[in-house]
Amino acid sequence: MYLESRLGFLRASQNPDGGWGYFSGKESWLEPTSYAMLALRQGGEPEPALDKAWKLIRSWQLDDGSFRPSGKVKEGTWVTAQAVMLAGIRGVNDASVRHSVDWLLRVVGAEHNMWTRTGSFLHLIKARLDVSHEGWPWMDGNATWIEPTAHTLMALKKVVGQYRTPEVERRVRDGEDLVLSRRCTDGGWNYGTPNMLYVDLPSFPETTGLALLGLAGRKQQEFAGALDLAERFRADTKSSLGKAWLQIALRCHGRDVAGPAEGGFASSDVMLASLQALGHPQGNYRLFGAERQI
Amino acid sequence: MTRRKFALLSGAAVVGAYGGVKLQKVQKPPELSQGPLGQSAVAIIRARSYSDDLVCRMLEGIRQCGLEVRGKRVLLKPNLVEFDPSTVINTNAVVIAAAVEVFERLGAAEVKIGEGPGHRRDTLEMADDARYRATIPKFERIFTDLNRDDVSAVKAFAGEPEFYFPNTVLAADLIVSLAKMKTHHWAGATLSMKNFFGVVPGSVYGWPKNKLHYYGIPESIVALNRQFGSKSFAIVDGVVGMEGNGPIQGTPKPVGVLVMGSDLVAVDSTCCRIMGIDPEKVSYLRMAADLGHVRPSRIEQRGETIRSVATNFALIDDFKDLRLVTPPTVS
Asked: What is the ipTM of this complex?
């Protein structure tokens, strides 16, 4: 009932162009489309509905290799990582995917420059923040954040078998180091600022789940306690989205998480339906796991 | 560049939640513009607690400002940032509920609520924490998560050939900035103008909306108000504001007022004077002085006087020099 109600909702809310909106009946965006595709995937079987969605996503690739977040937006963003991850899962291995991987490798957080590193060295930046890592921003030219970094780590780990180069391995290792360096003192992660004006900031459930997914394949001793915190977050948070990400992350890290209470889906939120379906014991949560250790 | 400016700007840039990498562009503040012709009305209405009759208070303030509402599609834009039960980060739910009733009573064609928080993805859950869902009738039916709304392009905004805004925002005839009266550790104060950061969609620009930080916080505030200010009205929740390390980690500061007006620059300047901050030293207000009135001589204060409600908000060390040194002018 729980899983089928969400998958049924997703099947019913696919747009005629093949994509999904953030909410049913809305325009297609890459992010909800990618989650819906992962949730609905049934490996090995013909999937015309998902092929149509994939075709739509590919039509959003720009000349520089990046992907636009929707048909209306003309600029490439972090969703390029989601397209690359989908390509890896679908076994697509061609020059255009390589082009997108190259774009991901070229993009670094804008704070990774001489000015801010010097400022950090001289203790002029009023925050406890390691700016020595590159990471990934939401948009090229902006600073590094946990969520786009986690998504890019997942994507690169998914395709590293096809594109194994020293640079891919270096960026993955450095990206993971960045995630580890941005951990909040409570043991989890927020959007990427663990400390502001020398005041520690709290972590959030959803970003803790995503950070843990970005670290999949890394030795768990390096983020000791984070999985226990994630379990506590999952039990306590009222955030359905946070719970869904934590469910996926904990399962990917081998934690035996109790399944959700049975129940239908009473929202129009495509992303939520997809992530809840993915995190179900019979869901496709394994698609978020690292294919191999770097 | 002074050490303090470097620290503030690079901290903002790197820490990023409110960063602006403009290390090379620290400029002398612009001369304060005379502003538009005429005067702007700003109403200061007493509301000593959230259990006061806020509908009645808002109707009085709107009447004093002469706002026309009938037939308009109204979008209420509260300030919903994060939730912490120990402090007062967000526009109080009771203020929003009162505003819904007020604009419906005044004959709006429709009244919607929209917000796109800068840090958290789960907007509805935050709204739940802030008691919006429990307090505001039919909340889920009239609320739009602006971070995940469909968008349309606007030409030449913030140095970009095209910039994207939520369709709900673009379609509104009247945007009501339901802001919170707070200090802000990068901008000095966050009021009705800064509240427009929440109309920038996370689906395009991320969480936080880091593109704005790189364009510059004051510059972005001014650009957003240049874009939307002419179809906006401000109601600032100063019943209980936030002082110190705002906008998230400050402490509650009871003031007991609602501040309203169609000129958002004048409303925010008035709020600053109430808070003991000199608006002429707040960079985004100086920069926005061609959009509205900063000078007290050009603001027609209605309702309460500034002097009768003024109370100094604690300021962090980096903003101590914003303190208003002369007593507020009473008009």
From this structure: 0.95
